[in-house]
Amino acid sequence: MVDKFRVIEGGGEKRDMAQTMLELGREARRASRELAIAPRQRKNTALVVAAGLLRTSVADILAANARDMEAARTAGASKANLDRLMLNEARVESMARGLEDIAALPDPVGRVSATFDRPNGLKIERVATPLGVIGVIYESRPNVTADAGALCLKAGNAAILRGGSDSFHTSAIIHACLVEGLRTAGLPDHAIIRVPTRDRAAVGEMLKGLDGNIDVIVPRGGKSLVARVQEEARVPVFAHLEGIVHIFVDAAADLEKAKTIVLNAKMRRTGVCGAAETLLVDQAVAKTHLAPLVTMLLEAGCDVRGDAQTQQVDSRVKEATEQDWRTEYLDAIISVKVVNGLQEAMDHIATYGSNHTDCIITENARAAEIFLAQVGSAIVMHNASTQFADGGEFGFGGEIGIATGRMHARGPVGLEQLCSFNYRVHGNGQTRPG
Amino acid sequence: MVDKFRVIEGGGEKRDMAQTMLELGREARRASRELAIAPRQRKNTALVVAAGLLRTSVADILAANARDMEAARTAGASKANLDRLMLNEARVESMARGLEDIAALPDPVGRVSATFDRPNGLKIERVATPLGVIGVIYESRPNVTADAGALCLKAGNAAILRGGSDSFHTSAIIHACLVEGLRTAGLPDHAIIRVPTRDRAAVGEMLKGLDGNIDVIVPRGGKSLVARVQEEARVPVFAHLEGIVHIFVDAAADLEKAKTIVLNAKMRRTGVCGAAETLLVDQAVAKTHLAPLVTMLLEAGCDVRGDAQTQQVDSRVKEATEQDWRTEYLDAIISVKVVNGLQEAMDHIATYGSNHTDCIITENARAAEIFLAQVGSAIVMHNASTQFADGGEFGFGGEIGIATGRMHARGPVGLEQLCSFNYRVHGNGQTRPG
Predict the structure, then answer these.
(1) CA atoms within 13 Å, Cβ hemisphere of B36
(2) Residue A411 within a domain
(3) Are strands B333-339 and A402-403 parallel, antiparallel or unpaired?
(4) pLDDT digits (tens, 9 = 90+) for B86-119
(5) Is A424 close to B380, i.e. CB distance below 8 A?
(6) What is the pTM of this model?
(7) Any A CB within 8 A of B387 CB
(8) How many A/B residue pairs have CB atoms within 8 Å?
(9) pLDDT score of B7
């Protein structure tokens, strides 16, 4: 099945690449115009048909994946990378079910988010519209091809997907299933475009915006990818560079609650962006709370790096350097610091945080209120695990990523955030005086 | 009074300018942190006190304005520019009342725009927060100093205002009144910063974002200013380059309604961005509607440029060239074209429009529905004058401009659009399974 996909493996001149990408951008824009007015049923049909095709193509998908895995192993990919790249029947089934779940979500396009009834009889509605064309740049996970393509489509957007070289053949087949779904539903092929080359110059072209034909870029991958995208993109980006997630154990924290939450926030999965990286403990409860928390973490297999006071708790605690407060470990490591009260905790977060997710543990409602109002991160929590930082857990039905910018989309980026809006003014002949 | 303002008139080395601007950016960021948590009463006090100071300083303001007017006249400014620059007692009073009106608006910060109650008991709120630091770059109108500064402040944002050289001394005094209001209310001086130099390099520094210390730029002025800002800015911009506003007279349009609306939309004020520039008439009603509309416009003193069919209506109609369909006249000139039905009208708008404001006149509800859903402009209207494209008319209580981008803010940019948001998660010990 693989051979039927026309694959451009790069090697052409740079100008050809730029031209090819520009043409893809124009095709995406054309498709986005059709999608913007496509009946919701067609979009859902495309997703459900694609889900069925993923299931019936599982042998082809796994064969392509084996080819990608072999190449990645030969190239010396890390175990973590190989795990991200690897598909099996369960993962393909999960991808197919993901498409069906997105099909079942309410259509975000056309939702009225505000109404203004004016004294002169004008009725003004603010209505969700698609954003346009979304560029997605990702690394080895081939499932992003299905997830991101489906979320963009559901919100009426055309997508230009540029996956990692590692997953080249796997993504090609997943993409073919999506395109077949589009065709069956009578939607344009170019509604979901896969960049058909491994040439990295394609990414550079996307970051320039393809002559106004990409409205927003979503990078999905490690810090170096996100940093490059944020640095070079000439179009808006939905992303977070890192999640330096704090938990502040306030003077009025319940110890048992703190232990449960901290353990889950740090250790449930250490590699996700909502995993806690720094624990701040109020001096007022350091005597009672610090040692139990630190011991619990050490016994759970977590490496603890602390300030002077924390190091006195247990000889296994290493010294935390200035760099530790700035580090997203994404591993079973935590930095721990004793602070003098709520304000010092918030100052620490303002200095070292990444505006992703931060949490206060307290039974003092006023302290919680201040923390939630004054810590400006995209997600602020009271008495809950920071690992809830996820669009699915928020009830968004899925997310294309988590954003820490202040414009348009923040926190989990779901269907609603993949939309723009316009104002629709209903009159009966009104003219403006004066 | 003028002498008490320390005025840097440029001339320093370029590096000094960059340093000065960077320092202003840092001050603005610091002030924005204080503003973000400032009680609403303080912000309102600052505005009301500043309004009073504008009134008591009217003699100083008019003296400074006379100085600016004299310099502008000497420099050969156009009559339109001189009118924009000119203040009198009524205009100062209107500025003062504008500040009081903004003080009286509901505080946008803290508004809960969505709530998600999760099955696990988590209660998630999406709450409006300030955007941060807003850079405003404007031309000769000195009232923008007061309006823009006040809107930014009300939404909890620090503002960096860079007015035109023309209004240099006038803006300095208006700004001094705002700063005195801030001081009286116990808010930081740097909440509203005025760039204290005429050196144009300051604009370039602002467009680079002052090392991450400007979150969004709002240009207020003519097309060349907006074009430069959109081209060079490395931070998000709220703006519209031009308003090529269309009115489509559908096959089911009521002629009297069409006449009333078209006349108002074109001629009420020809220099505003919501003024109509192109009239499209459905071939199906050309016989009955075209001549009366064209004659009405000609008799109102409007220059009409039409396609072949429109030229046959009246010998005073000039030929419309390809360039006319792309032109925002901002004057008593209109281009007129006969189209074959709704789809051709929408195609014309897609090709030549500027995504600002477009209107359909029809008694056919289905045609209106299609037009409003498929024309993707920031504002789409049915049976109402396009001159309603204004935040005040929308009930926003004021606007800092009108935006045509697809991200974050579109249409009139009022207090709500000058805010960002975050998610506040209220738990009672929830941890995430799995």
Answers:
(1) 25
(2) no
(3) unpaired
(4) 999 999 999 999 999 999 999 999 999 999 999 9
(5) yes
(6) 0.92
(7) yes
(8) 187
(9) 42
